[in-house]
Design a protein that fits this description.
about 110 residues; alpha+beta; about 45% helix
């Protein structure tokens, strides 16, 4: 399963939290580490979309309010499948951006 950097960050933060339900406001810290500045409104929209996609994949459970037109997610919780994925992410080694040699460069 392919996950974005933000989705990996969300899973790691929920796994490392002491509480079972995590407030979504802590995910704004992800954008403090990035170099490209974006508006707060756009950041909230991107975080919401990432959380919804993780819920669709069955990795998270969302808690919040549901109106007639929209769903507001205020807290999230890991599912058992999400816990396994988060554990794998914490144990995964980061790949270095080395260029793989091609056959043409080996024949020279």
């Amino acid at each position: 399963m392919k996950l974005s950097n933000l989705q990996k960050y969300i899973l790691r933060q929920t796994w490392q939290s002491d509480k079972p339900k995590v407030n979504r406001a802590i995910f704004n810290k992800f954008y403090e580490q990035t170099k490209n500045p974006t508006s707060k409104l756009l950041q909230a929209k991107i975080i919401t979309r990432s959380i919804e996609r993780l819920i669709d994949k069955g990795l998270l459970t969302g808690f919040g309010e549901k109106t007639q037109y929209k769903l507001f997610i205020s807290q999230i919780k890991l599912t058992p499948r999400g816990k396994n994925t988060a554990q794998k992410l914490l144990g995964q080694q980061v790949e270095l951006p080395f260029k793989k040699p091609t056959r043409a460069s080996l024949k020279k």
